[in-house]
Each structure stands twice: as C-alpha cells, then as structure tokens.
Amino acid sequence: MGLGHGFSWVVLNASAWRALPEGGLRGLLRYVATEEVGDDKLAADLAAAVEAANEDAAWREEALTMLTIEEDMRAQARFMMKESAKRAWQRVSPRDGPRVEPRVESREPTSSERSWSSL
Q1: How far apart are CA 78 and CA 102, in angstroms?
Q2: Are 27 and 42 contacting, i.e. CB atoms less than 8 angstroms apart?
Q3: Which DSSP symbol is given to 98?
Q4: Are 39 and 27 in contact (CB under 8 A)?
Q5: pTM (whole model) above 0.85
Q6: What distance in Å separates the CA atoms of residue 16 and residue 30, rounded to the nearest whole number?
Q7: Using one digit for the tens of pLDDT, what is the confidence trace for 38-75?
Q8: pLDDT, tens digit (0-9, with 9 covering 90-100), for 65-112
Q9: What angle do CA 106, 111, 112 make, to 5 degrees?
C-alpha cells in the first residue's frame, strides 16, 4: 500500500497464519502471532535477534522511548483534552475566586467504544 512518503507498507493478518500453506510466510506470521518458532529458519533468526535485543540494556532503554502510532495518538489526545479543559475552565471560572485545576481522567476505551471507532 503506497502512502506517498517513499515507504512501502505491507499489512498482513498474522492471526490467519493457519490458513496459509506451509512455507516462509506461514512461518513468519505464526511467529508474529504466537512467538512460536517451529521449524522456520527466518522465525528462528528473528527470535534470536529479539532475545539478543532484549538482553541489551542500552537498546532496551532506547526502544522504550519509541511509541507506536496508536500510543502516540492516545498521548496526543490526552494532552489535547487537558489543554481544552484548562482553556474552558479559564473562560468560566471567576477572576477573583479560588482556582481549582480541572481534572481530566484518562482511561482505555470500552469494547463498545472500540467497535464504534472501527466503523
């Protein structure tokens, strides 16, 4: 799928690995979905690389700072909600009275909210 930024993205459904015939793609998707290596050489190489990376403290520290797109969107949404609440509070609060900071709660969406967002 081309997005016009010079990268090519391939989207695969790893959970459907059982539907594929034996071969490299099935082995790769099986590993992604289950972390089971099986007899696949690529999956074994990936598992070894993941294990080595997890044992590398400096790499782990750097990788922990990276966000997935979804995590980044959630963080931005929380920030925007807090900023909007602060601005709204400033517009309606009395100028000379005691100030109370608005509180915005963050939570994971419920299953029904997730189903609506996928429409």
Answers
A1: 13
A2: yes
A3: -
A4: yes
A5: no
A6: 8
A7: 889 999 999 999 888 878 778 777 776 766 777 777 87
A8: 766 777 777 878 888 888 888 777 777 656 655 555 556 565 666 665
A9: 100
Confidence of residue 13 (pLDDT cuts 50, 70, 90): confident
User: Which of 29, 36, 35 has the alpha carbon at shortest distance from 13?
Assistant: 29
Measured in Å, how far apart are the chain's first and last C-alpha atoms? Answer: 21
CA 58 to chain centre: 22
For the four alpha carbons of 68, 114, 12 and 41, in that order, the dihedral sign comes to: positive
> CA dist 25 to 8, 50, 79, 113, Å?
18, 19, 40, 33
